[in-house]
Each structure stands twice: as structure tokens, then as C-alpha cells.
Specification:
heterodimer; A: about 325 residues; alpha/beta; eight-stranded mixed sheet; four-stranded antiparallel sheet; 10 helices; about 30% helix; B: about 350 residues; Rossmann fold; seven-stranded mixed sheet; 11 helices; about 35% helix; globular; binds adenosine-5'-triphosphate; binds iron/sulfur cluster; binds magnesium ion
Chain lengths: ~325, ~350
């Protein structure tokens, strides 16, 4: 059963210039993005900075209004509603179902509120009675591995990892059906990151959460996701079950991304050349396949015709003209 | 260690404190010893706040105003007639200015920290060349073009006249590297030079650093929190925790047989690209303590699975002897004793 069905999702930001603020161009932050997330599934959205991951996440949270496309969401089993065209007022009763875990555990908590009140805030807003709020806060603290005494303390008394736990507790307060986690561990040290990844894995299992996990770190993604969607300059270029994507990438960009990760093994010093050039400007993407100027396999067709995302076998989708004929290296 | 050449820089028992408003002094470095050798890469790794940047800044005498060196030496050209103790020089004196940039170059995490927005790339690089050894404007310009070419900037003849804000993050970091190399230092400190970059750009910058370091036989101190970067780049590794070097060893030893419980835990907690789906990571309990709440005894003892009560929580284990592979840990000391008896 699908919890989320995103189709044709497109978001353009206008570039305005001059005193009349005329539109002179458009940043094509997300172009025709399609994916689904089923109940209990974690889909990771990966890519380098500016590829459009956060734009997609913010559209799903409806913190942004998409330029076009639909975001069909299931508020109750058997029901589907398209969030894309809804007004603020229409969205209000639905917001509780889709919650965000932030990247920055420092900036996302109000320093003047006690932790108990921070976690209870969404309950209060949704009219949960005081005694029930109190009970739920204790339950949530326990769920994320914080002591009950944390309730009456302020965020500054907590380390980065503990603050991220507070953020997770708040996100879970209303039993959401979908969690959007935008780089939830990238601001943390590795030892603390490991604790939070394990917590997220436990919660996924216990609560059967459906998660969109936005990240740039392929190591973290390997541990938490069931499937991975790779974005490049606003478009999804490959989607595959996690194990398959790492073992047999089908898009040259996926391969480049994986080979660029520095392996924590000095006996495996990378001999593979680093991918050339830099990520294209989404305001001015190259014609054809946006990866063509950096792709070692590019042919003339890649410079003129945009490849479509299609099934290239074994449940893997890739948007590369040569996906069927290339054998790319994975990490096994 | 295979390499017995004299170090270019030896840091010995360095201690740094910061004063803070309404509180006692904070000890950021407790006792740090390191050697930087020509043609070798020393990787310095540790979690946030362990003192990596403070070590780098102390070596260049650019600590924040509330910080001061409390103990130890930073020896440039140790064991030679030119030996200089950087800690004994006036921080703003001529000699220190010469050393900064001229002998020891610095690459920052955020290249913008080193670059001004108001001057062209070329002007800033020419300035850096001419401060140390002025060859005249025309020659300096030619050198800048060569420098930009060396760091892999395409079309250096035109890029020389652009402003830093007109460049992408990757190109800016290349300019940052060119700036650090402008006066041809033989020691380079790179403080998280790729942390702000995307992974494909990081791979390019690391390859560039490696090439320059080998070509120019530079002694490179590469600071990072990423064990992957260490594995790919370092010859020797210093693992830091709460202002101390807790382990020092050649890179292969650190990964194959880490000695210190902290190094062991750190390596186990790194996500693995080959991990089975949904597999849990090994964790280290708790978090790094605040520097003003340094634990008594071994600084790692509150988080250490091998902690020996009555010992680890009362006295600090001895620092790693400079230049030797080892760990600052009672358990490691005990194991060495047992081995010594058996031998
Ligand atoms: N100006 C300052 N005033 C007070 N304390 C400081 C100052 N600068 C650094 N410190 C403290 O010194 C300690 C070491 O900091 P340092 O910046 O060297 O850590 P780091 O290892 O570089 O961390 P990161 O990985 O976050 O860059 C920290 O506890 C830090 O809070
Ligand atoms: S000295 Fe004791 S507490 Fe410190 S790392 Fe070694 S065993 Fe652990
Ligand atoms: Mg630092």
C-alpha cells in the first residue's frame, strides 16, 4: 500500500532582476520527479548540494507550493488525497500526518522552551488534554532514549545527539504516517551519528513508519533505506532497491557518486579518477542528459536528447541512454 | 617508522587555554605532541571540539584573542642549527609573519575565510607572493597564472581577474590551496579542506592535495573528522580526544589493529557501504564532554567499555611518546607489559 505517490513534481524558482524585478530565468530545482513510498518503507533521496533534494522534501511537507505535479498522500488506509493544489486551510488537518526531522538540532529547538513543552507543542496545538499530553511526553522521551527528567530542562543543557532525539520525539508526537528526515545526522559527530541512526532504525521497525530520508552520505543511506533515488540537477536519474543500487549501479552518475566516497580502508586507496568538472547549474542545465559534460560514457545522443527514467531490469530504473549496454562498478 | 628524516615541525606537550566570561579557563589542548615530516601526510582525526583546529591555529600563532599557549614547544626545523620555537616568538613579529605562509601554509575549511571579496583572485595571490619575496609585478603575475594552473583551475589567464564570489565552491577551494602555496611553504596545514564540499568535488580536491604534496615533498598535516579521508590520504595518523593525542600510528596499523578503545569504537561506528540493510552501527555511549567539564583521570573513561574503576578514573595514562606508535591508555600499557614479560 502506498503512503505517498509523487508524480511529475516540478518546482521552479524565478530569477528576477532589474528594478521591475522581471523574471529573467528560472532555477529548475525539481523537474518531473516521480516516486512512491509504501507503508513502512524508507526511501532515501540522495545527491549533491543543490540537486533539489530539499526542494522535493519541502514540497511534500507543503512548505513550498509545487509549480506542477501531484503529491498523493494517504491520510487513512484506503484513502488518497493530492496535497499539491490544497490551500493552507485545507492542509491544516492533514499536516499532523507528515512530520519533519530537521538537519540542525541546534537551530530547530526553541531555546526558551522546556523540552517537555517543545515535545508537547504539537499535541497542544491539536487540542490534546493536559493529562494526556503529560503521559504522551513521558512515553515519547522513553521512546527516543531520554530520561523523564529531561522534561523540565532547556535545550542548551543537551548535546547535539540528545537534541536530535528531542527533535525526533516532537516529530513523532502525533503518530505521523510519513516522516521526512532532511539530513538528520549530517551535523553530528560519527559516534553520535551512529546512535541516532540506530534509533531511527528501531523506530522504523517499532512504528512501521514510512520515511523520506534526504541525505548526501551514501554510508548512512546504506544503513537506513529500503530503496534509493539518486537526484542530479533537479531530476531523478536512478531509483533502485538499496542493495542493488550499491552492487550494480545503472547510471554513470550513481557510479561516480559511489566511487567518490572515501573508503575507510587504507588498503583500498582509490585508483579510480575523481569525476571531472562540477555539478551543473540548475538555472542553466546542459542540453540532453545533464550529466553529459562529466560523463565518461557520453555519446552524441547524450548531448541532444534527454534520457527518460525507465526500467532497466531487476526493478532498477535509470535515466541513461546507455544503461542497457554499460557495466558499471558498484561497491559489492 | 620507515622514515627517519628529521621532522620539519615538532610539537611537544602543547597546552592551550581559553579564558571565558564568567568562568574559569577552558583547557582546549592538554598535551599534544606531533611531528610533521617532509613528503609525509599526518592525518589528524577526532570528533568536534577535540582540539584539531586549536592545534593548527596555535602552530601558526593565530589563536583567538582569549586563547594562549600554556605549556609546550612548537619547534620549526628541530635538531638543526635553525631550530626555532614558535611559541617563543612574538605572534605579530616579523619572524612569525615570515613563517606564516612562507614556511607553513594554511588551508581553511571555508576558503572564504582566507579570501577577500573585494579583490580579484590574482591581486590576492600576487600580494601573497610579494609579501614574502617580491619578484616584481610582472613576474608575480606569471607565477600566479602558473599557480592557478597547478591547482587545476581551467583558463587561468582569465580566471586570474575574477573575484572569489564568481567561482564555485570547488574552484574557490582550489584558489584557497593556491593561496596557501603562494610563498612555497614546505609545511602545509589543511583544516578540514573538503568538509564543506560535495563528495565528487572532495575527491578532486583530495587528489590535488595528494599530487601537490608528493611533487613538492610537502609535510602535510591534514585535519579531518572523516575516517575515510584519513584512510585515503594519511601516512601516519594522530587520533585526538579532548585535547590529547590518544593514539599515534602508521595508517595501516590504525585501521588493521587500532590500539586505543576510542579509535576502536570510532572505526566501528563508521557507516559501511557494504553493510546489510537495516544493520545497526556500533556506538560509543554518551557524548564528548564539554571542555570545562574534563573528566578526571583518562579523559575517555566515562565512555570507555574497558574502563578500570579506581585506575582509569583517578590518574591519566601517559601520553604517546613522540615519534612512536602507541596509545595513551592503561589497557594498552598493561598489554605491552605482558608482552614484554613473555618475550
Ligand atoms: N575562542 C575560543 N574560546 C573558548 N573556547 C574555544 C575557543 N576556540 C576553541 N575553543 C574550544 O577549544 C576546544 C577545541 O576546539 P577546536 O576548534 O580545536 O576543535 P576541533 O577539533 O577543530 O573541532 P571541529 O571538528 O568541530 O572543527 C573546544 O572545546 C572549543 O570549544
Ligand atoms: S585508560 Fe582506561 S578508560 Fe582510558 S581508554 Fe584506556 S581503558 Fe579506557
Ligand atoms: Mg575544527
Amino acid at each position: 500500500m502506498n503512503m505517498l505517490e509523487v508524480s511529475g513534481l516540478t518546482k521552479h524558482y524565478p530569477i528576477n532582476a532589474g528594478i521591475l524585478r522581471r523574471e529573467v530565468g528560472r532555477v529548475r530545482a525539481a523537474e518531473d520527479v516521480n516516486f512512491t513510498i509504501s507503508k513502512g518503507e524508507t526511501l532515501a533521496l540522495v545527491g549533491e548540494s543543490g540537486c533539489g533534494k530539499t526542494t522535493v522534501a519541502r514540497c511534500i511537507l507543503r512548505a513550498l507550493k509545487p509549480t506542477s505535479g501531484s503529491i498523493r498522500f494517504s491520510p487513512a488506509d484506503g484513502e488518497m488525497v493530492d496535497l499539491a493544489p490544497l490551500s493552507k486551510r485545507q492542509l491544516r488537518p492533514l499536516r499532523r500526518h507528515i512530520q519533519l526531522i530537521f538537519q540542525d538540532p541546534y537551530a530547530s529547538l526553541n531555546p526558551r522552551m522546556m523540552v517537555g513543552d517543545i515535545i508537547a507543542e504539537p499535541l497542544l496545538v491539536n487540542g490534546v488534554a493536559s493529562a494526556e499530553r503529560h503521559r504522551r511526553v513521558l512515553e515519547l522521551l522513553d521512546l527516543v532514549g531520554l530520561p523523564a527528567a529531561a522534561r523540565t530542562r532547556f535545550p542548551h543543557a543537551f548535546s547535539g545527539g540528545q537534541r536530535q532525539r528531542i527533535g525526533i520525539a516532537r516529530a513523532l508526537a502525533l503518530n505521523p504516517r510519513v516522516i521526512v528526515a532532511d539530513e538528520p545526522v549530517s551535523a553530528l559527530d560519527v559516534s553520535v551519528q551512529a546512535q541516532i541512526i540506530n534509533l531511527l532504525l528501531d523506530l522504523q521497525e517499532q512504528l512501521g513508519l514510512s520515511t523520506l530520508f534526504v541525505a548526501h552520505d551514501l554510508g548512512v543511506v546504506r544503513h537506513v533505506s529500503d530503496r534509493v533515488a539518486v537526484m542530479y540537477v533537479g531530476r531523478i536519474v536512478e531509483v533502485a532497491p538499496t542493495v542493488a543500487l550499491y552492487a550494480t549501479p545503472r547510471h554513470p552518475y550513481t557510479q561516480a557518486l559511489m566511487s567518490a566516497v572515501p573508503k575507510a580502508d587504507p588498503l583500498m586507496r582509490d585508483t579510480a579518477a575523481a569525476p571531472i568538472g562540477e555539478v551543473a547549474d540548475p538555472a542553466n542545465p546542459p542540453p540532453g542528459c545533464a550529466f553529459n559534460p562529466r560523463c565518461p560514457f557520453a555519446i552524441d545522443r547524450c548531448r541532444t536528447e534527454r534520457p527518460v527514467l525507465r526500467d532497466v531490469g531487476a526493478g532498477q530504473l535509470a535515466a541513461c541512454h546507455r544503461a542497457e549496454e554499460l557495466t558499471l562498478a558498484g561497491v559489492g | 617508522m620507515a622514515d627517519n628524516s628529521l621532522p620539519l615541525v615538532s610539537v611537544r606537550n602543547l597546552a592551550v587555554e581559553f579564558t571565558q566570561h564568567g568562568g574559569g579557563p577552558v583547557r582546549a589542548l592538554d598535551s599534544v605532541s606531533l611531528d610533521l615530516r617532509p613528503g609525509r601526510v599526518l592525518g589528524v582525526v577526532g570528533e568536534s571540539g577535540c582540539g584539531k583546529s586549536v592545534t593548527a591555529r596555535a602552530m601558526l600563532r593565530i589563536l583567538d584573542r582569549n586563547g594562549s599557549i600554556k605549556n609546550g614547544q612548537i619547534l620549526l626545523d628541530p635538531g638543526t642549527p635553525q631550530q626555532t620555537d614558535i611559541t617563543a616568538l612574538p605572534g605579530e613579529g616579523n619572524r612569525m609573519r615570515e613563517i606564516r605562509g612562507g614556511r607553513i601554509g594554511l588551508i581553511f575549511q571555508e576558503p572564504m575565510a582566507a579570501l577577500s571579496m573585494q579583490y580579484t583572485v590574482g591581486n590576492q595571490l600576487m600580494e601573497a607572493i610579494r609579501v614574502h619575496n617580491d619578484p616584481g609585478k610582472a613576474v608575480a603575475r606569471q607565477r600566479v597564472i602558473k599557480l592557478l594552473n597547478d591547482v587545476g583551475i581551467p583558463r587561468p589567464e582569465t580566471r586570474i581577474d575574477t573575484y572569489p564570489f564568481q567561482l564555485s565552491g570547488g574552484l574557490r577551494q582550489r584558489v584557497g590551496i593556491a593561496l596557501a602555496l603562494a610563498a612555497d611553504p614546505d609545511v602545509l596545514i589543511a583544516d578540514e579542506p573538503t568538509t564543506a564540499l560535495d563528495v565528487t568535488t572532495q575527491a578532486q580536491i583530495l587528489a590535488l592535495l595528494r599530487r601537490l604534496q608528493v611533487d613538492k615533498k610537502i609535510a602535510l598535516m591534514l585535519i579531518t573528522h572523516d575516517m575515510g579521508v584519513i584512510a585515503q590520504m594519511a601516512d601516519d595518523v594522530a587520533v585526538m580526544y579532548l585535547g590529547r593525542v590518544v593514539e599515534f600510528a602508521p595508517v595501516n596499523e590504525v585501521f588493521a589493529a587500532p590500539r586505543h578503545p576510542y579509535t576502536q569504537a570510532l572505526l566501528r561506528s563508521v557507516p559501511n557501504l557494504r553493510a546489510p540493510p537495516h544493520s545497526r552501527l556500533a556506538t560509543i555511549g554518551g557524548a564528548v564532554p564539554q571542555p570545562n567539564a574534563r573528566p578526571k583521570g583518562c579523559p575517555f573513561h566515562p565512555r570507555c567499555p574497558d574502563m578500570m574503576p579506581g585506575r582509569c578514573d583517578t590518574t591519566a595514562p601517559a601520553p604517546v611518546p613522540p615519534g612512536q606508535a602507541g596509545a595513551s591508555c592503561f589497557k594498552v600499557e598493561d598489554a605491552a607489559l605482558v608482552e614484554g614479560v613473555a618475550a
